[in-house]
Amino acid sequence: MQRSRYSRRTVLAASAAALSLVATACGSDEPADTGGPVTLTMSAWSMKTTPEFAELAEAFQAQNPDVKIEFKEYDATNYDTQLTADLAAGSAPDLYVLKNLKNFITYQAGEQLLDVSDVAGGLGDGVNGLGNYKVDGVTYAVPYRQDSWYLYYNKDLFTAAGVTPPSEAWTWAEYEKAVADLAAGLKAAGSPAKAAYQHVWQSTVQGLALAQTPGADLKSGDYGYLAPYYERALAQQKAGVQVDFGTATTNTLQYQAQFGTQQAATMLMGSWYVATLVAQQKKGDAQPFQWGFAPAPQRDASGKDEPVTFGDPTGLGINAAIDEGKTAAAKKFLAFVAGEGGAKALASIGITPATLTDPVVQAYFGVDGVPGDELSRFSFATHDTRAENPVSPQTAALQNILQETHSAIMSESTPVGEALAKAGERARSEVLESK
């Protein structure tokens, strides 16, 4: 299983790797030698609420004035479908974002990504998630973000309920007790807030189960490892300490509103939410309250020093059909976004980059509104992040089956054991044995 590790030791190693880019053609801070002005087109989505694309382009163009980045915006929900259509029609942009690992192998197998092994070689080993984009020794994209899932918590609601906030070593058992205590304490305090909010995505259960269970394998066709995680979620749902799946689905609840308007004291969510919540509190779209983030709860105390969590990187690749005259500039841009330059640009707006060096960490916690407490800093810098979507030709089809399984279990239409057994049967008959 591919692992992406964030730790204070990694920060130092990444610093050295990032500095080595200066000595390479792709990593130099000098303007790109492109033989004249070059315009590169790049995919994006929801640009009004997703500032990372413009931030990366502006930071790069400040160092490379002869290279202009123009965006082609897609619908966020249907991004892969629309991009695939454009690639087939020959109208896709020069650079395109890989939102997660689920469909990476589809683009790679379709010969729609340029070989960027030279860029990857210049980056070194300090870029988290880089190995996920290598197939048969060839690298086809580079990560510029590496999100990880945290436990967000409302410090004010914990205080109101009289419950001790989380620590870096919370186990699932401690989390369950805290949620029960929160529910009782908030009720006693007259607060309408729930103790937790679990969003409707399959990731909220399956991502952590796959990452934290020894020997768990998406391609095994055996999904029994998911059972304890579903049983916990259902128990909390039945106890009323979190909104039930049916209500969240029917009312199309938004996780940003559930936590941002203090309707939930805790929430498991990806690191991208840090930037969102900071921005919403500044704009008044979220209420003002004290909050922080902690590592996702662990199976046992062994995860204390390096908590295990999950999250796919967000990568950038070059369209294999790009004009050869643009290739050098495109590779220059890839090296920038995956290196320290791009990482500092992303960190300055609260986005978690793939490269974590000391200057990057300082930039991240220098953002007004980002919690600077010791636990939040530990959570950001120290964890073992494992891929939600292990790179495989079967991953997309298996995840589709497991998405249906998630809905069946959380809606309580099918018992956990029965649903997981059916998922295994389908995985073997429809995907694994027919490959």
Produce the secondary structure layout:
Elements: E1 3-6, H1 8-20, E2 38-45, H2 52-63, E3 67-74, H3 79-89, E4 95-98, H4 104-109, H5 117-123, E5 134-135, E6 138-139, E7 142-146, E8 149-154, H6 155-161, H7 172-188, E9 194-197, H8 203-212, H9 227-239, H10 245-250, H11 255-260, E10 264-270, H12 273-283, E11 291-295, E12 308-310, E13 313-318, H13 327-338, H14 340-347, H15 358-365, H16 374-381, E14 383-386, H17 395-410, H18 416-432
Parallel strand pairs: 2-3, 9-10, 12-14
Antiparallel strand pairs: 1-14, 4-13, 5-6, 7-13, 8-10, 8-11
Helix pairs in contact: 2-14, 5-13, 6-7, 8-9, 14-15, 17-18
How does this model look, in words?
The protein has 435 residues and is α/β, with parallel strands linked by helices. 43% of the residues lie in helices and 16% in strands. The protein is built from 18 helices and 14 strands. It has a 4-stranded mixed sheet with strand order 9-10-8-11. Helix 5 (117-123) runs parallel beside helix 13 (327-338), helix 8 (203-212) runs antiparallel to helix 9 (227-239) and helix 14 packs parallel to helix 15 (358-365). It is globular, with a radius of gyration of 22 Å. The two termini are 20 Å apart. The model is unreliable at 1-34 (pLDDT under 50).
Short description:
With 435 residues, this protein is an alpha/beta fold. It has helices at 8-20, 52-63, 79-89, 104-109, 117-123, 155-161, 172-188, 203-212, 227-239, 245-250, 255-260, 273-283, 327-338, 340-347, 358-365, 374-381, 395-410, 416-432, and strands spanning 3-6, 38-45, 67-74, 95-98, 134-135, 138-139, 142-146, 149-154, 194-197, 264-270, 291-295, 308-310, 313-318, 383-386. The chain has 18 helices and 14 strands.
